[in-house]
Structure prediction request, 188 residues.
Amino acid sequence: MYEGDIASVLLTEDEIQARVKELAVEIASRYPVGSPQGDLLLVGVLKGAIFFMTDLSRALPIPTQMEFMAVSSYGSSTSSSGVVRILKDLDKDIAGRNVLIVEDIIDSGLTLSWLMRNLSSRDPASLQVVTLLRKPDAVRTDVEVSMIGFDIPNEFVVGYGLDYAERYRDLPYIGTLDPKVYEGDGGM
Ligand SMILES: O=P(O)(O)OC[C@H]1O[C@H](OP(=O)(O)OP(=O)(O)O)[C@H](O)[C@@H]1O
Ligand code: HPA
Ligand SMILES: [Mg+2]
Prediction:
C-alpha cells in the first residue's frame, strides 16, 4: 500500500502496541478508581488521535469515558498554519472532571498549548496530556506533557492516524514520508 511513498518505517505496529500498553499502565496508576470526580474522561483530538485513542482506551484497566474534539491547523501542508480551528467541540461539560487529553503528536506544540488554554478555562478538576509522539521543537513550548510514547526526530511522519493531506492515516505503523510526495507545498 502507498508503494514508494514511505521512505522508512520509524515505529512498527508491534512497537506502537507495546508502548500503548505501557502508557495504559502508567495512566491507570495516576487515576485511582472510585474518585469523587467520576470516571476518567479521555478527550481524543481528532482526527490524528483516533487509533491511539481506541487502542489506549481498550488497554486501560480502569473505567473511562470518551469525548472528542476536532481541531485542525495543518490542512494539506507539512507545516502548521499557526491557526488552530475548532471543527467539532466537546458534547459534554467537563467542569469538575478528571480530563486526559489524548494526542497523536506534539510537533510545534501550538495545537496543544491552544487546547490546554481552551480546556482549562472550562474548569476541569484536573487536566493532563498523553501523546504518542513528540518532536524536538515541542520542547521549546511551555506546555507540560505528562506522558509521552516516543520522542522522534524532526521529520514529517504518517500512519497510525497521522496524515498528509488526509492520506496514510490507515497505515498500522508510523513512517517517514518521502519528500517527493510533498515537494512544492511550501512546508518543511
Ligand atoms: O504541535 P502542532 O505543530 O500543533 O501539531 C500537532 C497537531 O497537528 C496534527 O493535527 P492536524 O491539524 O493535522 O489535524 P488532524 O489531526 O485532523 O490531521 C496532529 O494530529 C496534532 O493535533
Ligand atoms: O509529522 C507530522 N505528520 C503528520 N501530521 C502532523 N501534524 C504535526 N506534525 C505532523
Ligand atoms: Mg493532519
